[in-house]
Amino acid sequence: MIAVASLSRRYDHVRALEDVSFEIASGAALAVVGPSGSGKTTLLRLIAGLEQPDAGEVLLDGCVVSRPGWSLAPHRRGVGLVFQTPALWPHMTVAQNILFGLRGLPSAEARARLEALLVRTGLKGLERRYPHQLSGGQARRVALARALAPRPRFLLLDEPLTNLDARLRDDMLELILAAAQEAAATLLYVTHRMEEAARVASRVLTLEAGRVVGIEEP
What's the domain range around 2? Predict the structure, then answer.
């Protein structure tokens, strides 16, 4: 379960989020939509632990992980995070990027998990390439595989299909949905496309100027 309670965040005198509250049941999905500057990315970063709130709390499976002045480290939250851009380590190969999240596993188990992800994401044969040798769609798949590698309980995606063509968006979206279902992950999907929101989640939260203006079925 993901829950945020009266969450607020400001940058100097700019309100990014104001008194945002909602819950996502375990294994369920919520899409977040809204115009640029509405607070979508800030919300995701607060849940991931990349920022601390000025007010309110973030709870994961009923445990407080963020409050003003304190935040549990992102790597201790069981969160898989995919940004708008792939954000791959440029000095690491495809395989090394994916293995980065599996450092705590025995070598044989990590390798088996890597092989399964390479096949699942259509990256088999590309494992020795570096990010600059990949197409945009391939880099996005590596980022997704890296997020899925440790089998996160919570999957947070920040407009992961931006600037992809329609066919690749469809392929990536099917991959995301299948992976989330297989892992029984709780999914928060940030997008500005209502058609993506409708395919991903049964509920859509709309943000405007940092405030929730509605939570409804798409």
Answer: 1-78+155-218
